[in-house]
Amino acid sequence: MLILITYDVSTLSSAGQGRLRRVSKICQNYGQRVQNSVFECIVDAAQFAELKIKLNSVIDPTEDSLRFYQLGNNYKNKVEHVGIKQSIDIEGPLIL
Amino acid sequence: MLILITYDVSTLSSAGQGRLRRVSKICQNYGQRVQNSVFECIVDAAQFAELKIKLNSVIDPTEDSLRFYQLGNNYKNKVEHVGIKQSIDIEGPLIL
């Protein structure tokens, strides 16, 4: 099934950037990043449970917001995209 | 049905902030903001078509990324939340 994960964290702090990087890394083992803080993961029920445990151990629940949406197995006609495909590479080197 | 709208725009520019503000205003006529760039809207098929037309007229497709996810009518057990509920108020006054 397709799971959509949306993650809200202030990336103005380096700790927040680090958490977003770790969330992204975990999600990319199961799927892909489609926007800066939006990840689409293809998982079964066991992997979904595992993914939630991993993400919960990374985020700061007093600062971050994490949402999971279950799109089911027939998700292809439930998703539409407009505009650019590439999100800003906030994992790239930070030039100050 | 529940439509999830995720919107990726660089809010570092004032033009980007303005577009996010306009996207938020349109979405809030149909639902609510749940994260900085994530909106949940309850619409029927006609309203969904109308909403897409409105949003497409606001965004810059060469800079922004807009995604629509259809969660259907039985969405209540398809959504899970972890962490803080309140997103950062990026619509508030900008103090420089």
Automatic annotation (TrEMBL), chains A, B:
Q: Name one GO molecular function term.
A: endonuclease activity
List the keywords (alphabetical): Antiviral defense, Endonuclease, Hydrolase, Magnesium, Metal-binding, Nuclease
Membrane-spanning regions, if any?
Answer: none
Which Pfam families does the UniProt record give? CRISPR_Cas2 (PF09827)
**What EC number(s) has UniProt assigned to this enzyme?**
3.1.-.-
Asked if Magnesium is a keyword of the record, the answer is yes
SUPFAM superfamilies given in the database record: TTP0101/SSO1404-like
Query: Required cofactors, per record?
Result: Mg(2+)
Q: What class of enzyme is it?
A: hydrolase
- Residues that coordinate or bind Mg(2+): D8
InterPro entries cross-referenced by the UniProt entry = CRISPR_associated_Cas2 (IPR021127), Virulence_VapD/CRISPR_Cas2 (IPR019199)
Listed under subunit, the entry gives: Homodimer, forms a heterotetramer with a Cas1 homodimer.
Q: Which family does it belong to?
A: Belongs to the CRISPR-associated endoribonuclease Cas2 protein family.
Function, as annotated, reads: CRISPR (clustered regularly interspaced short palindromic repeat), is an adaptive immune system that provides protection against mobile genetic elements (viruses, transposable elements and conjugative plasmids). CRISPR clusters contain sequences complementary to antecedent mobile elements and target invading nucleic acids. CRISPR clusters are transcribed and processed into CRISPR RNA (crRNA). Functions as a ssRNA-specific endoribonuclease. Involved in the integration of spacer DNA into the CRISPR cassette.
Protein name from the UniProt record: CRISPR-associated endoribonuclease Cas2
What is the species listed in this Swiss-Prot or TrEMBL entry?
Paenibacillus terreus
What lineage is this protein's organism placed in?
Answer: Bacteria, Bacillati, Bacillota, Bacilli, Bacillales
